[in-house]
Amino acid sequence: MKKKFPEHIRRMQKIFDVPDEAVIEVKLSEGDPRVCDYCNDVLVDEKGTTVRKTHLTDYGLMCERCLGSIKPLATYSEGQSVYYEHWYQDGIAR
């Protein structure tokens, strides 16, 4: 039985040929900052607040500088709380 994922996750699965069992849900935990998936600059602090403009894309979290021409799925302003948000990503090591 197919898992129910948002449409943007289905697109990511097609792009990277990712099976359902390899998709993991990422939730923020207290004291767990998040970084840009390309340059490793901190985007979300340990309290779940964005420290700079942050973009959620089919390719992960990205800062403004690394976004380029990629269309974001969501954009978060500096200072915005994303503590209760969650993201999906593939768990396949490349």
Describe the protein's architecture and organization:
The protein has 94 residues and is of the alpha+beta class. It has one domain (7-90). It is 15% helix and 28% strand. The strands form 3 sheets. It has a 3-stranded antiparallel β-sheet. The protein has a two-stranded antiparallel ribbon with strand order 1-7. A two-stranded antiparallel ribbon has the order 2-3. The two termini are 26 Å apart. The mean pLDDT is 81.
pLDDT averaged over residues? 81
Could you name the ranges where pLDDT drops below 50 across 5 or more consecutive residues?
Answer: none
- Spatial arrangement of strands, main beta sheet: 5-4-6
Quaternary:
single chain
Number of alpha- plus pi-helical segments: 2
Helical percentage:
10-25%
| Amino-to-carboxy terminus distance | 26 Å
User: How much strand content do the residues show?
Assistant: 25-35%
- Rg of Cα set: 13 Å
* Secondary-structure element series: HEEEEEHEE
According to DSSP, the number of beta strands is: 7
The shape, in one word, is: globular
Total domain units: 1
